[in-house]
Amino acid sequence: MGIDDLHWRSIAEIAELLREGEVTSAGLTEALLERIDETEPALHAYVGVMADSARREAEAADALFARGERRSALQGIPVGVKDLCETAGFPTSAGSRALEGYVPTNDAVVVRRLRDAGAVVLGKTVTHEFAYGQDTPPTRNAWDQRCYPGGSSAGSGVAVAAGTAYGAVGTDTGGSIRVPAAVNGVVGIKPTFGRVSRRGVFPMSPTLDTVGCLTRTARDAALMLGVMAGRIDQTDRGALDEPVDDYAAELDPDLTGVRIGVERAYFFYEAVEADVRAAVERAIERLEELGATVVEVTIEDLDIVVPAGMAVLLGDTSEWHQGLLRSRGADYCRETRGMIEVGELVLATAYVKGQKARRVIQDRVRSAFGEYRLDALVAPTTPETTMPIDELSVNLTGKTVAGALSGFIHHNFLANVIGIPSVSIPVGFDSDELPIGMQVLGRPFGESMILRIGDAFQSVTDWHARHPLQFEVAR
Amino acid sequence: MRPPVDGDLIRMLAAFADLEIPEGDVEMVGAYLTNVLNDRDRLDRLDLSEVEPIVTLDPRWE
Asked: Do B33 and A342 touch (CB under 8 A)?
């Protein structure tokens, strides 16, 4: 890989080149801004590019390097930020015309942490409207521009896959980091609920929303999450007060002693595509070869994950939108508005039942981790690979697993409903050369373990090193 | 037996919620609500009588 391919390097590699003075942040930033110009007509990963401030941040990072100062592994590294996160002085629209013209005065905590760590914020990545994931933004899958890019952190997934960001912030309420990671062939981590501050991030649900990141390797996710995690002070109610591990330091390719569960009834049902099933099975075998012990497990009542989560999500989201819906309702896209409208019509008793059912699910999963002495669960991130946008079945209510989005929620909602961490890693391609993801779900605040499993897998595979090379404007 | 979700029901519920649903959204919202009610039925099969909801009040000030 030569100097012309710097955009494919990992954060860990680029950090080393920056530290050694072999590249500058200003040079990297300029190269990525040029690459954004080249790829955006086909991909539409960014809703806004912050070229001026990015250049200033890159120069500041280079000045720190020149003085021998290093604030973090992300110093000088260009990253993207989902447009659900507020950015001081730069428009934040949450993907909605209803917020057109809104310019925050403060950065979201996660943006501030990245900037304080010396990262270069290149721009705002496209989100589905208010992250509700029903609309189809112009963003296109990095591997096939006719196809769905995942959502709602669509732009973040595509930018990382296309080499127009080394990492990107995403948010995840029901798979919105892991799905775009899986369908674009990158890594996406949804941390434990409260691990990364939600302050300054447009909400869906105060008990389901999670902020995380998308990168090309698990090691990069460890580095980026290490910068993003933790609350800023006692007034920050968007994060939990738990110590932050040194995730990168705890990576270890030897998985001896690690116990990994496979729950087939819920995650490997008939509708899971053969290519997806085969790739995940092969990945599980690789984990065994690395020393892990794989255990077949049964967890009762997982079939209520989606109904429980949706009962809560609908009410929470609609409550936040009540005022905006009445003043700017016509500016919402129709499908998002419909979901918000229906959330106002459901009974409060259903909401409480959803919250109680979450406790039941949490108990079931906790018991399973205890009974089988598990460190993690593994499962396909999605039951199928991405599909042409015009074949997408739009049904966010999760009634069945037949529709594509419903299947995505079926596989991903568990981690949100009980707040556990989950990382999606690329584990292969289907017969159409579309990426396949496997998620690794961990114990609460078990990010170190799931990243270790992901990194160990990537130490003996090269799926993460394959890149989409051609981008064509879809017809 | 639950009455079917139709346009009149949606309009009535919306009125109680002080919500003006555009006429073009009524059918779509009805379909969504039907799915939501079916989901609620799935929750009803659980015995939740002794279960604490996952959100509880923390009354501590410090």
From this structure: yes
